[in-house]
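INTERNAL AUDIT FORM
Audit reference: QA-55
Scope: verify that the stored structure record matches its stored sequence.
Auditor: D.O.
Record contents follow.
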Amino acid sequence: MLKPYFNALLVAALMALPWPAFAAANQDRVLALLENAAWVAEGADQPERVVYTFTDMNCPYCARQWQAMQPYLQREDNATQVRHILIALLRPTSLPKAAAVLAADDPAATFAQAERHYGQQGAGPAPLKTVPAELENQIQGNTILMMRLGLKGTPATLFLDPDGKLQVAPGVLSDDALRRYVFQVE
C-alpha cells in the first residue's frame, strides 16, 4: 500500500514554509493527511472536535499524556475524539508493538490497556513476531508524516484552537492546556 508514502511525499512538497506559516497556509491539507493516517480513536463517537496525537508505543511521555487526557475523555459532556497516530521511532520494538495494536480485534481497548499499564512487565500487547506489510507501510507512513511535518518527538498533538486555527503542541501538555485548548471545556 503506497498511500502513506504518497501522503508523506505530498507533505514534503508542501513544506517550503516554517511550521506556523505552513500550517496556516495548508491547514486543510494537513488535516486531510492526518485523517488519512492509520490511527486509533477514543472519545466521542460523533465529535465536535478531533485531536491528533503522534504516539510511539515505547514512549513513557505518550503514556503520561494518555493518562492526563482520560478525565476529559471520560466526561459525560465530552465532544472530543482523540486519534492516536501510531509511529515507530524510539526502539526496534516500536513497530511490532504498534502493529499489534492495529491488528487487534479491538485496537482502542488494546491501546488503552498498553498505555494504562505502561512500563509494567508483560503489560500491553505482545509485539508481533512478523509484521504484515500493510501494517508496516501504515506505521512507517505515519512516522514519515510526523517527520515531514517537522515534529521531532512524541507525543506531538495537533488540534484546532478555539479560533479554528491548527496548532501543534509537542510534549506532554499541562492540564490547563488540555482543558482550555485541546478539549475546550471550562
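Auditor finding: record pair retrieved intact. The chain has a mean pLDDT of 88.
Action required: none
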